[in-house]
Amino acid sequence: MNKKDFLDKAFDEILYYAAPIAVENMMRELPECDEVEFSDSHKTKMEKLFKQERRKLFFKKLSKLSKRVAIIAVIAIIGVTISIFSVEAWRIKVLNTIIEIKDTYGQIDFYSEGAEKDKSNFVMSYVPNGFECVRNDTRGEGNAFRMYENEDKHFSVSVRPTGGQMAFDTDGAIVSDVEINGKKGILSDMSQTVKNYILLIWYDNTYCYSINGNISAEELLKIAENISFK
Questions:
Q1: In what order do the strands lie in the sheet with 174-180?
Q2: Is there a single domain that holds both residue 50 and residue 108?
Q3: Helix orientation angle between 67-78 and 40-62, rounded to the nearest 10 degrees
Q4: Residues 170, 89 within the same domain
Q5: Considering its fold, how many domains does the chain have in total?
Q6: Structural domain harbouring 17
Q7: Are the C-beta atoms of 71 and 14 separated by less than 8 Å?
Q8: Which of 39, 73, 136, 178 gives 20 to 30 Å between its CA and that of 185?
Q9: CB 149 within 8 Å of CB 131
Q10: What is the pLDDT along the chain (230 residues), one digit of tens a residue?
């Protein structure tokens, strides 16, 4: 998905949730007519009819605007009403991750639950020469962990469904954005510290992947780019 498609999708989601709220606000602000006594059944039918017609009129006017202008108009109408959304609920549909980097640690908040698919059986098409798998764990719902060693060198690979939070070390690290096969990621390089390791994290809408070890960043990236699933 390119930047334009992503923005269009985000605007669609905002409009989807904001428009009904704007409609309700507009209906509440309409002046009330003098009270006239009608039967309960008649009141119910008329209320339903008026609500439908008001919605039709609102969306008919709204459709004449461009998508982005319409969103701005809707947001302006609802004003402070947007505060009824929690921060989490608002970010679910616009951005499914929030990344926060601080001096000593980083944190990824996943605001969508990964689908329950078994991706534990992943294939590594590239493993650096001399490394052997010394640990291979799988734990339901797509969780998987593997560790490789070669004398004093080592690295591990893990896969887990998105959801909740993921914290990682950035103390003394050089942190940079990366992209793995079109997926966004973060590289936390602590190879020049006493910790002497590098952490690579990337994710999609369903799973979060990570590799860390005391091998080069180039090798970590090459391993990541050659991971696939059966």
A1: 132-139, 143-150, 153-161, 207-213, 197-203, 183-190, 174-180
A2: no
A3: 130
A4: no
A5: 2
A6: 3-94
A7: yes
A8: 136
A9: yes
A10: 554 554 455 555 555 545 555 555 555 555 655 555 666 666 676 676 666 666 666 555 555 545 444 444 444 444 433 333 333 333 333 335 566 666 666 766 665 555 555 545 678 899 999 999 999 988 766 788 899 999 999 999 988 877 666 666 677 788 888 899 988 888 888 888 888 889 898 887 778 888 989 999 999 999 999 988 76
Question: Do 156 and 212 contact (CB within 8 A), yes or no?
Answer: yes
Asked whether residue 222 falls in the same domain as residue 206, the answer is yes
Please check whether residues 114 and 215 belong to one and the same domain.
yes
Q: What are 10's two structure tokens?
A: 């985000």
Give the pTM. 0.53
Tokens of 76: 């302006």
Distance (Å, whole) CA 63 – CA 73: 12
Residues in CB range of 54: below 8 A, 6 or more apart:
23, 26, 27, 30
- Do 71 and 122 fall within a single domain? no
Report in angstroms the alpha-carbon separations of 9 from 4, 15, 92, 96, 179: 9, 10, 13, 12, 21
Do residues 132 and 143 lie in contact, with contact meaning Cβ atoms separated by under 8 Å?
Answer: no
My answer on whether 83 and 108 are in the same domain is no
Sequence letter at residue 73: A
Domain termination site, one of 51, 79, 94: 94
